[in-house]
Write a structure and sequence with these properties.
about 15% helix, 9-stranded mixed sheet, OB fold (Dihydrolipoamide Acetyltransferase, E2P), elongated
């Protein structure tokens, strides 16, 4: 008698093998970290987490939005430091602006006393958290109405007043 090339047991194993491989692949896909897709929510990029300046030490090498009040502005020849919430050396967080590299054109002294937000990757510099300001759109100033502006508002001078009218002999004032 001629037997089929595959026995019944071998045929069952051949059918189960692809199903078993699929099961194993799906198991690893479910338990592996989804680092590439963790920032996506419903197909949209998730907004970065917003933290206070004091919490920044817990987020090294992560991109977040840090909020705080600028209490000290230190301008050096090549760099400017904005210390949040407390002056140096007790400041829990610093913003570093390299002159000529950030594109920031505003008056940094006008930021003193303002509540701000900065978006960026927190770096550890001598055990202190900081973000390097590389683009002007990283920094947001919170004004008193809780609306946002990317750069501090510049003071505008009041409009020039018209010269006073001088009386004439015909009773109609003449404007010079």
């Amino acid at each position: 008698m001629n037997e089929p090339p595959f026995s019944a047991a071998a045929t069952k194993f051949v059918c189960v093998k692809p199903i078993l491989a699929l099961f194993i692949a799906l198991t690893f896909a479910v338990i592996s970290p989804a680092s590439d897709t963790s920032a996506l929510i419903n197909g949209l990029a998730a907004a970065p987490m917003k933290i206070g300046a004091l919490a920044a030490t817990h987020y090294y090498d992560q991109t977040v939005v840090v909020t705080g009040k600028v209490v000290q502005v230190t301008i050096r020849p090549a760099v400017t430091f904005l210390n949040l919430d407390q002056p140096y050396p007790d400041s829990p967080f610093a913003i570093v602006i390299l002159h000529g590299k950030s594109g920031y054109e505003g008056d940094v002294n006008s930021l003193r006393g303002k509540s701000i937000e900065i978006l960026g990757k927190i770096k550890n510099y001598h055990d202190k958290p900081e973000i390097l300001l590389e683009r002007t759109n990283q920094l947001t100033v919170l004004d008193s109405t809780n609306s946002f502006s990317a750069v501090p508002a510049q003071a505008t001078p009041p409009p020039a007043k018209a010269p006073p009218a001088t009386p004439t002999t015909n009773g109609i004032p003449e404007i010079m």
